[in-house]
Amino acid sequence: MDMTNARWRKASRSSTNGGACVEVADNLPGVVAVRDSKDPSGPALTFTPAAWRTFIGEVAERS
């Protein structure tokens, strides 16, 4: 998957001290990508928008 045009943003719950940071790109057609901000050239997980909404819903429910 080409993520050249991905606009990455840091998750709102990420640490501000450079620690456990997750970045999300939701501007790509048909996919939501997630990566570790400490390794921006490393792998990214990809989800369909529906799977991402389910994941976020489950996380929010358990928080």
Automatic annotation (TrEMBL):
<feature type="region of interest" description="Disordered">
    <location>
        <begin position="1"/>
        <end position="20"/>
    </location>
</feature>
<dbReference type="InterPro" id="IPR007278">
    <property type="entry name" value="DUF397"/>
</dbReference>
<feature type="domain" description="DUF397">
    <location>
        <begin position="6"/>
        <end position="59"/>
    </location>
</feature>
<protein>
    <submittedName>
        <fullName>DUF397 domain-containing protein</fullName>
    </submittedName>
</protein>
<dbReference type="Pfam" id="PF04149">
    <property type="entry name" value="DUF397"/>
</dbReference>
